[in-house]
């Protein structure tokens, strides 16, 4: 026990560093809403500047340290002013990728200057020890580091709790627009927080460099432990970050001492903490939504064979004709393109930010390589086995995605991928040690395809597999599965309201993407007769791959081909090598700079620009694409639609948010063919009632019953499938999809088998009779090919209503459908809702503030105030109810009340 405690105390230095670095992460997140993945790299830069000042210029320790800290702070200011300010309204994906680009750029600069060597830094703090008990001692330098961390924590806590600047930071984080009306500049606050947060990273790196040495990869990887610390602190509490950092540092050092026979366990400890924390909390970080962010565009997934076939033939001829060095470069490019293609599916289509795709590639290569090495199986058996074995691992990594998203998911996947790297790829026992996994010359159906003996054969096999994987992703994009993934990517709430299983969609995307990445990893690994995993399948390459996908076009099938040219050893590197000099060494730096450039200037990537160029040069292709879409518009006449008629009963419904009672004891019934109005003053609980009925809000007490069956325990998706549909007050359409895709997503049948079948052949879009009737009723035929965000507001409201009825619901809940419409449009909408009830047999629950609209349309009306039902009856009865009059005007004069309700 004494020895455990002794090593735990030694870990105080590492813990103090984690605390300081995490304080910087907290500052930057609170000040700008950005989770800075480059925090470790920024600290590394400060540490190297300190080292140069101390050794090359022989400046005093304190002066050198201040220069290093200032250097990190200046980098933070430049990052905010030059990059992040321009991305204020960008998506979380864009801001994450920007910080990854900064990480790549800074790390590449350091590698160019210092290479991969380890630099030992002379300790400047006192090196004695303080005897505590027996053999237990406390090193002086660790104590001083802890004191520094504690003092800075107290200062930060006091400043951000009591100073005007701290209050301003909290105000901007809570509501930027409101804070700006009080004179606070969000840009200035973000800049100061970036400066201080980056300076803390520099201080942490300088203090810890004598303990862990100065090495590029070690310094940048420390950001993971700092993230775990910041997560425990909720990205808000400085004292909690201090304690968490010290505990993680102590535990990591102690575990490292007593588990030396389990490689990577100590390094993985903070990463495991990340996963546990996020799974327990079960929600994303408190993202500060500046008006919601626009995601990169998504391609159609159509494969134009008149272009693809000639390109494939040219690529095959090139692979056969060029010298072996270029053949290897082309093969690496193809393999990297497959790994990047997995990111197109997972991030571009499904919106799930994964920083573990090279880990998935490595795991597939690990399984395939070990099978060949141990059991001497053929290449085709190893390939299929590696892919199939990786799919469950991808699904396992996807489990946190069910409860987390966005920034948190990026952290989780990076942590899990890095854990795989530390504990599997770097294990001598599992991978064959120094000489790696020996696979010899692979045979494909008895044919030698060794990349060393027959590089042209191996390259052609790789090209064929890339085509196959591209067909898989294209098939998914064009079918029901693709529409479901894009719906989840765009708006999870709206997708659930259409009966789409968010969990199934995410697990599917992660699983298929893992298989595709595994295929690329196997091709990458089997180029040699001996596989060394640790140097290829790294978290750094996983981070880089997301950048390659962004540059190439993260939503387009063609994107991976462009992005993969930036991979190490790719055709891009070969071209740079052909130039006299060591230009290929600059490829990682070029990649980092290009990532930052594309995130700022063109988040849709090169593929989008090439697509636009092709359409301009080959107008016939554009006409053919339009003709293809127009075929889908030629829909047959639909028979009159009658839905399955069901009764919705709500009994004693109560909804609480913490200690606040939003709805209390509300009872109502919606019958087939009836329009039931639900009215009340602002804040009366109307939307909360709809949310509770549809499964989007917690139902504390009471019952929601559909046709005699309780739905209390059903999710929003299950309730939608049972026949309860809704519209949203904020519309919540799939903004970057066409009107037709919005309707098809709603009309697609709920068949889980389509996820598997559409890998091989996408289902053709079919418009159900209800969808056709909705298109006609809402006069949307001319807008089917129009992207929703380009529609006028009135049309967008109609699309939202048409989408809600396209799933043929028995019960339809409408949340302020007439908001923002003029009198003529409102009258037309009222007629449409009446037809849905009378002609389709749908029971309608209508929430609306326009009293003329409600009184003229509804058969009965329920009135709520402060979450309680205060009246129910016909429009005439409700209009004269004294409690209703008082709730609306607080007033007493029937003439005033009647006039107010008729406005």
TrEMBL record:
What InterPro entries does the database record attribute to this sequence? AAA+_ATPase, ABC_AA/LPS_Transport, ABC_transp_permease, ABC_transporter-like_ATP-bd, BCA_ABC_TP_C, LivM-like, P-loop_NTPase
Keyword match Ligase: no
Q: Which PROSITE patterns does the protein's record reference? A: ABC_TRANSPORTER_2
Question: Which Gene Ontology molecular-function terms are recorded?
Answer: ATP binding; ATP hydrolysis activity; L-isoleucine transmembrane transporter activity; L-phenylalanine transmembrane transporter activity; L-valine transmembrane transporter activity
- Annotated compartments: Cell membrane
Q: Where is the ABC transporter domain?
A: 648-891
Membrane topology recorded in Swiss-Prot or TrEMBL: Multi-pass membrane protein
| Principal cellular location given in the protein's record | membrane
Query: Which controlled-vocabulary keywords does the entry list?
Result: ATP-binding, Cell membrane, Membrane, Nucleotide-binding, Transmembrane, Transmembrane helix, Transport
Give the matching SUPFAM superfamilies: P-loop containing nucleoside triphosphate hydrolases
Q: Which GO terms describe its cellular component?
A: plasma membrane
Name of a matching Pfam family: BPD_transp_2
Q: Name one GO biological process term.
A: L-valine import across plasma membrane
Q: Where exactly are the transmembrane stretches of this chain? A: 6-27, 63-84, 96-116, 143-160, 192-212, 218-235, 264-282, 303-323, 329-351, 381-399, 406-425, 458-476, 507-526, 546-567, 579-600
Descriptive protein name? ATP-binding cassette domain-containing protein
- Please tell me the species this chain comes from: Cryobacterium levicorallinum
